[in-house]
Design brief:
The complex is a heterodimer of chains A (113) and B (113). Chain A has no helices and eleven strands. By secondary structure, chain A is mostly beta strands. In chain A, the strands form two sheets. In chain A, strands 2, 4, 5, 6, 9, 10 and 11 form a seven-stranded mixed sheet that branches. In chain A, strands 1-3-8-7 form a four-stranded antiparallel sheet, with no helix packed on it. The N and C termini of chain A lie far apart (37 Å). Chain B has 113 residues and is mainly beta. Helix content of chain B is 0%, strand content 52%. Chain B contains no helices and ten strands. In chain B, strand 5 and strand 6 form a beta hairpin. Chain B is globular, with a radius of gyration of 14 Å. The N and C termini of chain B lie far apart (34 Å). The chains are: A mainly beta (113), B mainly beta (113).
Chain lengths: 113, 113
């Protein structure tokens, strides 16, 4: 069974631009969660989607948004990029909500210049 | 100048030794705990999980111990190998936090041949 896939793997953007990251969960998984990983803050929860509905949201500004499609694939968007948004963005999928057995993708490395 | 970054606790062991990585969690309502391994440039890899109604769970070469009285979690790796070198994170899923995982700061394990 294929794992969680994320595209693109690397991205360089300039301040003020916006970016969309994509995540395809493991086949059959309906829950997708997004995390931001930085050296200074570690792994922080962004939001979680289940059955196309946002179930939970972390403490990030409204510039961070996401959505989930009927095939469980998910996208997250960051608008008006800031230097501090440079991070590894990780997507994790699981069969149910509740955070149980979340499997991570390889991440998208975003660099904002 | 001052460096900015996450200071990871470190553990250095000899190949073949047993490793014990410790983690303190904060939410007494957490009902589920996970250990992840993250190698450089990769996403976190699921190792083993445990629910709050258990105090021990074993996998292949790994054992997780849960002490709810002192809110402590540990990961034991038997016969540590160079391929075990990575950053290890514990994560908790507090009962009140829905699907979000709250991660510890991680421990850098180095296995010396």
């Amino acid at each position: 069974k294929a794992g969680v896939t994320q595209t693109p793997r690397y991205l360089i953007k300039t301040r003020g631009q916006q970016v969309t990251l994509s995540c395809s969960p493991i086949s059959g998984h309906r829950s997708v969660s997004w995390y931001q990983q930085t050296p200074g803050q570690g792994l922080q929860f962004l939001f979680e989607y289940f059955s196309e509905t946002q179930r939970n949201k972390g403490n990030f500004p409204g510039r961070f948004s996401g959505r989930q499609f009927s095939n469980s694939r998910s996208e997250m968007n960051v608008s008006t990029l800031e230097l501090g948004d440079s991070a590894l963005y990780l997507c994790a999928s699981s069969y149910t909500e509740g955070g149980y057995e979340q499997y991570f993708g390889p991440g998208t490395r975003l660099t904002v210049t | 100048g001052e460096s900015v970054g996450l200071h990871l606790p470190t553990l250095s062991v000899q190949e073949g030794d047993n490793s014990i990585i410790n983690c303190a969690y904060s939410n007494s309502a957490s009902d589920y705990f996970i250990w992840y391994k993250q190698e450089s440039g990769k996403g976190p890899q699921f190792i083993i999980d445990i629910r709050s109604n258990m105090d021990k769970r074993q996998g292949q070469r790994v054992t997780v111990l849960l002490n709810k009285t002192v809110k402590h979690l540990s990961l034991q790796i038997a016969a540590t190998q160079p391929g075990d070198s990575a950053v290890y994170f514990c994560a908790e899923n507090g009962e009140t936090s829905g699907s979000r995982l709250t991660f510890g700061e991680g421990t850098q394990l180095t296995v010396n041949p």
